[in-house]
Structures are given as C-alpha cells and as structure tokens.
Amino acid sequence: MKRLRITSASLSVVCMLALTISPRALSQPGSVKNAKVLLDEAQKSQQERKRAAKQEELDRVSEDVKKGKQDAADLEQSISLVGNAVNESKSNLELLAGRKKSATQDLELLALRTEAEKLKAEGLNLLNSAHAKTLEALTKSHEELDLRTTIISAEMQKMSGSEKIGESDAKRDRTESGPSVTELRRNLAKAEGRSSLADYRVREAMDAASAKLQQAEAVAVKVEKKQAEFGLDKPNAPLKP
Predict the structure, then answer these.
(1) Which residues pair with 174 in a beta bridge?
(2) Cα within 13 Å of Cα(52), Cβ side
(3) Among 1, 151, 165, 169, which is most buried by a count of CB atoms within 10 Å?
(4) What is the DSSP annotation of 194-212?
(5) DSSP code for 176
C-alpha cells in the first residue's frame, strides 16, 4: 500500500511537470533536457523518502527487538528470583515440619515425664507417711514391751515370796510401787491392740507407697521406650528449645 501511494505521487509530479511545459518548449532540445533533470530529481527524492521510511521502520523494529530482549532478560531474572523464593519457602516448610515433629515428640515426652515425676512425688510422700507411722508403731511396741517388762518383774517378785502372808488379795496382787498385776495385764492387752493397729497402718501405708512408686517406674519405662522410638540415645535427655 505504501508503495502504491509513492508510485501515485511520482506520477502526479511527472504529470505536473508535463503540464507546466508548453508544446513550444517541448520542441526545444534544452527544455526536454531540463524536464528529464527534474524527473530524475523527483525520482531521486522519492527514493530518498523511501529509504528514510525503511530506515525509520528498521529503527523501530530494532528498538522493538531490543526492548523485547530486555523484557525477556527481566522476565528470566524474575523467574530466577521467584524460583529461589520457592526453594527457600520449601526449605522453610521442611524446617518447620521438622520442628513441629520435634515439638510434638518433646510434648509427648514432657507429659510422660511429668506424670512419672508426679507419681514419684506422691509415692515418696506416702513413703514418708509410712515412715512416720512406723515410728509411731515402734513407740507403741516400746510401750507394750515396757508393760511386759513390768509384769514380768512383778511376777518375779511375787514368786520370790516378798509378799507378806495374810495380806488381802488386792494387796497381794499389787507391787510395792505401782498398779496390780491384773491392771498391768489389762493395760498390756490395750497396748497390744494399739501396737497391732499401728503395725497394720504401717503395712497399709507401705503398700500404698510401693504401688505408687511402681506406677512411677512403669511410666519411666514408657519414657525410655519413647526416647528409643524417637531416636534419642540418652535417657532423660534435655528437651530441645
């Protein structure tokens, strides 16, 4: 289309030149030569305009190519940056997943250790209470032994004939410095009951303490198994921050 318009313009210039030249002038050799010169200049000018248009188009295409290359380079750089960001995000996700797994394991171990320590503390408290009851039982046993000793001493005095003949039965049954043997035996029976009850309470407290400590030991075994399952070598290893 551009070429058609340029050709039409050339024809128009030639026609105008032809019309401006009179028939008389055409009959003269110099005038024909001048017309040819004008035609050559018109064609030359037309060629220069065509070259200028082509050069302008070429420059525009070159600029478009240059801009396209720059856009492609920028896009490649952007793709590289996005790719690096994606890799970094994946790495962070893997790190967070590892931390989450570690935190879950730590929480599970922490719960088991807490339970084990709680049971251990309760067991030790029961054991301490059992020791106090054992001390009380020993006191009751000493009271019982003291009464038995007193009774045996009174009976030995009685057997030695230290009591005067003709004294009343009440006086005969009494020692020189305390209650009668009958009263001592009644006190001994009461002391035996208290001692037996104290021993029972000691056994009961010891059984409770033993059961609680066994529970704590069972939970501690669970902790060790979990540590082995999680790949932790050292038992009671400190939890990760």
Answers:
(1) 180
(2) 7
(3) 151
(4) HHHHHHHHHHHHHHHHHHH
(5) S
Count of CB atoms within 10 A of residue 5's CB?
9
What the block records as the tokens of 100 is 């989450």
Backbone phi, then psi, for 209, in 5-degree steps? -65, -40
Name the residue type at position 155: E
3-class state of residue 34 by DSSP: helix
Provide the token pair at 57: 């188009």
Contact 32, 26 (CB under 8 A): yes
Q: How many angstroms separate the Cα of 21 from the Cα of each of 10, 15, 24, 42, 199? A: 17, 10, 8, 16, 152
Q: What is the pTM of this model?
A: 0.52
Dist CA 77 CA 80 (whole Å): 5
Per-residue pLDDT of 147-172, as tens digits, reads: 889 888 888 888 876 544 444 444 44
Quick count: other Cβ atoms within 10 Å of Cβ 141? 17
Task: Of 190, 181, 183, 136, give the one whose Cα is nearest residue 155.
Answer: 181
